[in-house]
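User: Just a sanity check before I run the rest of the batch. Below are the structure tokens for the first item. I only need the designed sequence back.
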């Protein structure tokens, strides 16, 4: 039982180390209406909107571009996350070997 607790504690430490490392990573995604900077924990750090898309006529376009840009940033973060996990040797999950 104590061995399982130790494994769980080790896993938690690995996850916290990974989270800290990912917080340092930044990705940018942009299209003609929006630019987003996101960290490796998928938190949006900045969002810039092209003023041309702030008019009422372009509101639907802006919404679409924001959604597309966020999705693109998330994909980029997920790729970086996978690479970072590989570099760190992956998480040592009990029972997954």
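Assistant: Here's the designed sequence for the first item:
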């Amino acid at each position: 039982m104590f061995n399982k607790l130790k494994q769980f504690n080790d896993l938690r430490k690995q996850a916290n180390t990974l989270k800290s490392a990912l917080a340092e990573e930044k990705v940018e995604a942009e299209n003609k209406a929006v630019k987003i900077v996101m960290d490796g924990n998928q938190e949006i750090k900045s969002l810039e909107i092209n003023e041309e898309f702030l008019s009422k006529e372009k509101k639907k376009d802006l919404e679409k571009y924001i959604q597309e840009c966020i999705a693109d940033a998330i994909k980029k973060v997920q790729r970086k996350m996978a690479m970072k996990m590989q570099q760190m040797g992956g998480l040592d999950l009990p029972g997954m070997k």
